[in-house]
Amino acid sequence: MTIQEQLRAAMAAAQATHDSSPSPTPPVPAQANDDIAVASVNELTPDTFKPIAVHVAPIREEVEREFAARKPIKVKRLNEKACLLKVKRRMYAPYKHDDEESRNYGVGNVNKRLFEGRDNLVAETISKYNDVYTFLKNNTVPWDVGTDMVNMLHFTDVMAGLRQRIAIAEAAADNLEANWDQVVQDDLTRIRVKCLSHGLPDRSDPNDYPATIRDRFSVDIRVMPIPDSSQFDPRFGMSDDDIASLERQLDDVETAANRHVITQMIEPMTAAVAKLKTAIGDKGSIFRDSLIDNMVDVADRMARVNLSDDPVIYERIKDLQSLVGTYANNKDVLRSNQSVREKAAAQIDALCGQMQGLV
Question: Looking at the structure, do residues 94 and 209 belong to the same domain, yes or no?
């Protein structure tokens, strides 16, 4: 007899006793195989069912736990958790086609490299504009060529970081413009001296340089929503096939974004394993702090850009943060202790293998 049947039998017996004469009623016999014995009707009191509840509660709790474990993950639509960023940079390219040298070469074009090296204002300005692009890529996941997705939970921070770097880049461009004439003269001198030192004709030419430089540098940011099929009214021509096609595109983008997060983490982990497996003293065994710092950085960045609702991806990010956080505080030990290196390599390699299974 099940718990429910025993409860019903006991309640029926109690009701019968209440409605009938006060003559004693024989106790309800318990089944031989029952786990729970039901009290006789004469013994029914307000506390009679407490022993049964003691058994029922754990069963109910177990069912609730099982139900919770089987509940589907609440998946947000992509447009609910991200938006699109399109950052367009315009930068001066320090190259000039050399007509005469191209004719002499005869089999292709020859470009003259202006402002060679990094120790000049042009190179410094270009570097600041590249910092804008690097920051964007480090804090977003790809959507399409030239367009990226940013996690809405970190949108404010990303935009603040972008605008801070854009301000620095624009200040560098302003400074370059203010010193442009001198910068050009310095480069003309560099080219002239270099040609003469190699016994070549003077290839310096003031016409190779633009009259002004500021308009050659700019950054434009465009923030756009991610399209969603529910936003399209079929009355305006959006067919079921069109909606299904858009849904597939969004699924593909989200899958690619998840893959991006995992592969970004795998890359420095793989490099770390290869380095840590090299015995101390062997060629290529020199340990640098950046080996661990790169993993710390990528784990933190991927935690911010992650758009997946998959708890497995979330857990792998946390695993990497936890693992490298330990070694980040013990870099000197990794530098000098071979057994610790081997242990670290094994742990990172194991986690890397788990991540590769998600790609």
Answer: yes
Q: In sequence order, what are the residues at sequence separation of 6 or more whose Cβ sits closer than 8 angstroms to the Cβ of residue 249?
A: none
Domain count for the chain: 3
Strand-pair category, 147-151 with 82-90 = antiparallel
- Does residue 239 fall inside a structural domain? no
Asked if the structure places residue 53 within a domain, the reply is yes
Q: In the listed set 19, 50, 70, which residue is the last one of a domain according to the structure?
A: 70
Question: Which residues make Cβ contacts (< 8 Å) with residue 179, sequence separation at least 6?
Answer: 121
DSSP code for 229 = G
Amino acid code (one letter) for 134? T
Q: Return the structure tokens found at 81.
A: 């958790």
- Domain enclosing residue 113, as ranges: 78-224
Going by C-alpha positions, the residue among 300, 297, 306, 303 that lies closest to residue 260 is 306
Complete edge-to-edge strand list for the sheet that includes strand 218-224: 141-144, 147-151, 82-90, 218-224
141-174 per-position pLDDT tens digit: 999 999 999 999 999 999 999 999 999 999 999 9
CA-based nearest residue to 17, from 48, 37, 43, 46: 43
Residue 235 lies in a domain: no
CA–CA dist 100, 205 (Å, integer): 12
Q: Would you state the torsion angle of the CA atoms of residues 41, 46, 49, 53, taken in this order, to the nearest 10 degrees?
A: 180
Residue 341's Cβ-side half-sphere holds a number of Cα atoms within 13 Å equal to 21
In tens, the pLDDT along 281-332 reads 999 889 999 999 999 999 999 999 999 989 999 999 999 999 999 899 889 9
Instruction: Report how far Cα 223 is from the mean position of its chain's Cα atoms.
Output: 19
